[in-house]
């Protein structure tokens, strides 16, 4: 009977195994960091979406005021109790009225901030008429929407002018937890 001695192990398999294990560990760490970034981004988007939804409360309040409240009549002059200005406000490069960029309410804005769904969410808004100056609205001094309900190029009845409506801009700033801020802006019309 012949006795065969075992072959000497050189440890090559161990080195390859350690290299593969190192590569798998690096991949797992990269995947974990990627998941954390994705979760943070998803949380930020949900947070922003919540603030937008809460900001719509100001839109609802202003439209109610335009229909039956303080802004239903007499919008040719400023109405400080409703944060309304009869002339176009100064804006920054992004089109946000500068009165919304200060921490405290400007002296002309007497309507207080609206508290959101939680006490750490504050909603501030301002409405301005897109006119050069206060007073009666006219096509020469205001941005106006001319209604043409049929979409025709010519008016249906010659000599009768189409109804017009002055354009108003509603700008909203929502300040949330950790002083995060979002700005919303919309326009609406009101018949002259």
Describe the protein's architecture and organization.
By secondary structure, the protein is α+β, with helices and mostly antiparallel strands. The protein has 1 helix and 6 strands, in the order H-E-E-E-E-E-E. The longest helix is centred in the first third of the chain and has 57 residues, at 12-68. The chain is elongated and about 120 Å long. The termini are far apart.
How many domains? The number is 1
Strand content: 15-25%
Q: What is the overall silhouette?
A: elongated
Distance between the termini: 116 Å
Order of helices and strands: HEEEEEE
Q: Biggest β-sheet, characterized? A: 6 strands, mixed
Question: Can you give the mean pLDDT?
Answer: 81
- Low-confidence segments, ≥5 residues, pLDDT <50? none
> Using only CA atoms, what is the Rg?
31 Å
Instruction: Compute the number of helices.
Output: 1
Q: Find the count of extended strands (DSSP E, 2+ residues).
A: 6
- Helix/strand-derived category reads alpha+beta
Range of helix content: 25-40%
Tags for this model:
192 residues, alpha+beta, 6-stranded mixed beta sheet, 6 strands
Give a brief outline of the structure.
By secondary structure, this protein is of the alpha+beta class. Helices cover about 30% and strands about 20% of the residues. It has one domain (about 10-190).
Topology:
Layout: H1 12-68, E1 84-85, E2 114-115, E3 122-129, E4 144-146, E5 164-175, E6 181-191
Parallel strand pairs: 1-3
Antiparallel strand pairs: 2-3, 3-5, 4-5, 5-6
């Amino acid at each position: 009977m012949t006795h065969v001695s075992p072959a000497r192990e050189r440890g090559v398999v161990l080195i390859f195994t350690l290299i593969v294990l190192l590569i798998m560990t690096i991949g797992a760490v990269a995947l974990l960091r990627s998941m954390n970034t994705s979760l943070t981004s998803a949380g930020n988007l949900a947070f922003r979406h919540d603030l937008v939804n809460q900001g719509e409360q100001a839109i609802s309040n202003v439209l109610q005021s335009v229909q039956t409240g303080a802004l239903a009549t007499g919008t040719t002059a400023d109405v400080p109790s409703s944060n309304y200005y009869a002339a176009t406000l100064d804006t920054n490069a992004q089109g946000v009225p500068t009165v919304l960029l200060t921490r405290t309410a400007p002296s002309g804005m007497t309507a207080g901030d609206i508290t959101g769904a939680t006490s750490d969410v504050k909603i501030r808004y301002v409405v301005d008429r897109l006119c050069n100056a206060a007073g009666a609205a006219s096509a020469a001094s205001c941005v106006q929407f001319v209604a043409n309900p049929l979409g025709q190029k010519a008016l249906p009845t010659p000599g009768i002018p189409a109804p017009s409506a002055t354009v108003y801009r509603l700008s909203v700033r929502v300040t949330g937890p950790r002083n995060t801020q979002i700005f919303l802006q919309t326009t609406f019309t009101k018949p002259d």
